[in-house]
Amino acid sequence: MASAHRCTSMATKLLMSVVLLVVLKRSAGARSDDSPCGFPAIFNLGDSNSDTGAFPALFPAVQPPYGRTFFGMPAGRQSDGRLTIDFMAQNLGLRYLNAYLDSLGSNFTQGANFASAAGTIRRVNGSLWTSGYSPISLDVQIWQLQQFINRSQFVYNNIGGIYREILPNPENLISKALYTLDIGQNDLTVGYFDNMTTKQVEAYVPDLMERISSAIQTVYNLGGRYFWVHNTAPLGCLPYALTFRPDLAAAEKDGAGCSVELNAGARFFNARLNETVDRLRATLPGAAFTYVDVYAAKYRLISQAKKLGFGDPLRVCCGYGGGQYNFDRDIRCGDKMEVNGTSVLAGKPCEDPFRSVSWDGVHFTEAANKFVFDQIVDGALSDPPVPLRRACQAKGQ
Ligand SMILES: *[C@@H]1O[C@H](CO)[C@@H](O)[C@H](O)[C@H]1NC(C)=O
Ligand SMILES: *[C@@H]1O[C@H](CO)[C@@H](O)[C@H](O)[C@H]1NC(C)=O
Ligand SMILES: *[C@@H]1O[C@H](CO)[C@@H](O)[C@H](O)[C@H]1NC(C)=O
Ligand SMILES: *[C@@H]1O[C@H](CO)[C@@H](O)[C@H](O)[C@H]1NC(C)=O
Ligand SMILES: *[C@@H]1O[C@H](CO)[C@@H](O)[C@H](O)[C@H]1NC(C)=O
Ligand SMILES: *[C@@H]1O[C@H](CO)[C@@H](O)[C@H](O)[C@H]1NC(C)=O
């Protein structure tokens, strides 16, 4: 996972924050008239697929070459550039989301991001140092959301000043905001990477669903009404999963070279998630839920990569070791190696990340994230089929 620390001089840091500010400002595009919901903010819960800086705010920084394609430097994201959530914010005319935990230079006027890389729906036994999973599980993210709502209202109303320029106006915000959720991939790997069978993984999926239900119920009780729920990716098409489960990678494969078994686990999770969202629709009056089939978008990209102008979707852009996947579980993207007494970059990026699907074996490139965004933004893969901008109208029952 995370790699070595590196010291950066004060001057470089200052320069980087200036560059980042300019980049982030540019992103806050004009709001189109075509915004029937007028979402004033996004509050996002999730894992590394949508973490914009929580994990590196607490743990080792994201290293170069992460972020190079768009931000020109590491920007808290596990990709070479923007994530799907960034394109979503842009589509809604909102700023890119800052991580709630990022205390430096953050602007929460249009939302906050609670997602953490390596985050799970249910707590994983053992600390980050032993398990590799983030302590910021979904229940912790919900506590943080409660704290955010509570504290930002207090600070906005009672302290004011500069805080009115970096915190949201609490009026109506909670009920008008869009709540997005993208989590579950790591809950699947918890079992699979512990050598569980798909049957054993499936056995704990109902527990995951109860926790998602209860998290959404809590947000509803706080006043949240608009929910946009991503399902989980085809795990069996991701190089790290194929590397951590060589037995399943060697067993039955589909036409795209993905593990049939691992994808069956992901699809089981997704079918239960679809049912869970459906039940919430029935029990939470006045709420609007959009279930988004991100699995289908990602699978389309991977199975039709060549036709879509991408290279081998199972070949990692920023990796090490060559071979089928160019992925080494011990030498990841951005990791350095001692060669004859000098430290050199071993996990190097490819020449053409814009033609790669997999950035680092776990996460997608910006180009792939953009493809996924384009697939889901108009509602073609959603239930009900509403566009992102109309997600407040998703009252299909
Ligand atoms: C964590 O450990 C407790 C106590 O041994 C156990 O009951 C629980 O099932 C474990 N959780 C997971 C996710 O393995
Ligand atoms: C919100 O803040 C108030 C006042 O500080 C406190 O009494 C209340 O318990 C807090 N609620 C939550 C959910 O933290
Ligand atoms: C925070 O973002 C909002 C919306 O983009 C902007 O109006 C405001 O000026 C920003 N605050 C600061 C301190 O830059
Ligand atoms: C899973 O099985 C493989 C092959 O038997 C073994 O090498 C590996 O250590 C096992 N992993 C765990 C976490 O038990
Ligand atoms: C989700 O369930 C609904 C029925 O509630 C079904 O119509 C829809 O096809 C399902 N979506 C996916 C992506 O499986
Ligand atoms: C490391 O040093 C040895 C001996 O001088 C040399 O043969 C080898 O090519 C060097 N390796 C690299 C990668 O430079």
From TrEMBL:
Domain of life: Eukaryota
Record field: transmembrane: none
Family annotation (Gene3D superfamilies): SGNH hydrolase (3.40.50.1110)
Entries under Pfam families matching the protein: Lipase_GDSL
Keyword Electron transport in record: no
InterPro entries, per database record: GDSL, SGNH_hydro_sf, SGNH_plant_lipase-like
Keywords tagged on the record: Glycoprotein, Hydrolase, Signal
Signal sequence bounds: 1-30
One Gene Ontology term of the molecular function aspect: hydrolase activity, acting on ester bonds
SUPFAM superfamilies linked: SGNH hydrolase
Annotated family: Belongs to the 'GDSL' lipolytic enzyme family.
Name of the featured protein: GDSL esterase/lipase
Species assigned in the record: Triticum aestivum
